Amino acid sequence: MTISTEAAKPLPFSSAVGSLIEATDAIRNFRAIALLALTFIGAVLVGGVLTMLAGGMSSALLAFLAALMAFLVMFYGSNAVGILLMRDAQGQPGMSLVDAVLVSLYTSHRLIAVVFLEFLIVLAAMIAIAIILFVCKIPMLGPVLYAVVFPLSAIVLGVLVFALFYVMLPLAGPAAWSGASVFQIIARLNQIVRTKLVSVILLEVLLFLITAFVALLIFGVLGTGVSLTTGMSAGILSLGEMNMYALAAGLGRGGSGSGYIVAAGLGGGLLMAAAAVVPGLIFTKGVCIIYLDATRNVDFSASEASLNDGLATVKKKAEEARERARALAEQASAPAAPAAAAAPAAAPADSLQCPSCKAPVASDDVFCGECAHKLK
Q1: What angle do CA 55, 57, 58 make, to 5 degrees?
Q2: Res. 317 pLDDT band, cuts 50 70 90
Q3: Can you name the residues that pair with 360 across neighbouring β-strands?
Q4: Scanning 9, 52, 200, 266, which has its CA 20 to 30 A from the CA of 234?
Q5: How far apart are CA 82 and CA 67, in angstroms?
Q6: How far apart, in Å, are the Cα atoms of 273 and each of 45, 60, 234, 278, 312?
Q7: Mean pLDDT of 233-251
Q8: Rounded to an integer, what distance in angstroms lies between the CA atom of residue 279 and that of residue 208?
Q9: In the chain, count of helices (H) and strands (E)?
Q10: Helix %, strand %, coil % of the chain (to 5)
């Protein structure tokens, strides 16, 4: 999958808002709807069945496996949906569900690497600030230094956290869905943070409001229906008190409760998973639109080259440090030279020379035989 580069001019903020509202058109993408519905339902089925087995067997390991399997289904399935919606937002031809899933299985690990690197960046900043705060413990000078460190640290950490949760994490998915590599994603998101942080945050907030409104509308309708249905079911089927806690408890006991309770728990879970499809689609296409607007007609070559140069420098220094450590290890493990070999051999007696004319002299000579220089 290639990275789309559009030559259109950047959209003004009002046009970007209008294009963001068009994210509601995601409900017309029937392939994305089907794939996300299958993802949610598959995650609920896998997690629910394994959770029931774990409850019946009282196995914590099986419960952990249930959560892990449900997460993997959600992770790769939602990324496949993101790939479909990114191609839709870019105006590219669609792909089959199988191809989208295969591409997701091949590329979604990039998101894990990006999220790990992003948290490492934040952690490194916090460690650096902690070291500076320890320096501020110096008597007399510490309070003066802290007066400067405190506001600067607050600004740095505030910007980092906002950039992490409003730009880096939400837009890492669209960047990966567009075909960017791990380091290309890092470089592009860093440039977006430096140049378009405020506008991207505003668009993110608007997207949250749109998604929340749609979700509130859908779940309000379903909540009313579920409340009426559970009340009628409790009276007609003689199920006693029926609520969300009772349904969850019925599943947690491994199906040992009433069969109706277990059936209602599974059916209600599938219903809620299907209901979450529409808000999920709107949010996913919305972040794709925000990413495309933020990267429209932007040259990332300088940012990517700078990141590559920095990585090359770090790699070179690491290689130098490794070579130096290897040389020191070899030097420490080398056998010590014999003392007799280290000390120069004593010169034989007949090899003595006159310090004046360098003529050979004997050890018992008082004067040099050549220049009469006094030797003793």
Answers
A1: 60
A2: low
A3: 353
A4: 52
A5: 22
A6: 10, 25, 23, 10, 46
A7: 57
A8: 10
A9: 13, 0
A10: 75, 0, 20
Alpha carbons 366 and 373: distance in angstroms, whole number: 9
CA distances from 31 to 78, 96, 209 (A): 12, 8, 25
CA angle 202, 192, 9 (to 5 degrees): 85
- What Å distances lie between residue 12 and 20, 173, 196, 235, CA to CA? 12, 24, 12, 58
CB atoms within 10 A of CB 75: 17
Query: Which residues are CB-neighbours of 257 under 8 A, at least 6 positions away?
Result: 249, 250
- Confidence category of residue 254, pLDDT binned at 50, 70, 90: very low
Structure tokens at 350: 């007949």
Number of alpha carbons in the 13 Å side-chain half-sphere of residue 334: 9
Answer for the pair 151, 176: CB distance below 8 angstroms, yes or no. Answer: no
Cα–Cα distance measured from residue 138 to residue 144, given in angstroms and rounded to the nearest whole number: 10
Question: How much is the pLDDT for 39?
Answer: 86
Residue type, 350: D
CA angle 115–93–21, rounded 5-degree value: 65
Q: Kind and range of the H or E element at 161?
A: helix 141-163
**Of 207, 372, 203, 217, whose CA–CA distance to 294 is shortest?**
203
Lowest mean pLDDT among 1-10, 18-27, 147-156: 1-10
pLDDT in tens, 270-300: 777 778 888 888 898 889 988 888 887 776 6
> Alpha-carbon distance 332 to 334, whole Å?
6
Instruction: Give me the long-range contacts of 177-181 (CB less than 8 A, separation at least 24).
Output: 177/79, 177/82, 177/83, 177/85, 177/86, 177/288, 178/1, 178/3, 178/4, 178/86, 178/90, 178/291, 179/1, 179/2, 179/3, 179/4, 179/107, 180/3, 180/110, 181/110
Q: How many CB atoms lie within 10 A of CB 205?
A: 11
Helix, strand, or coil (residue 360): strand
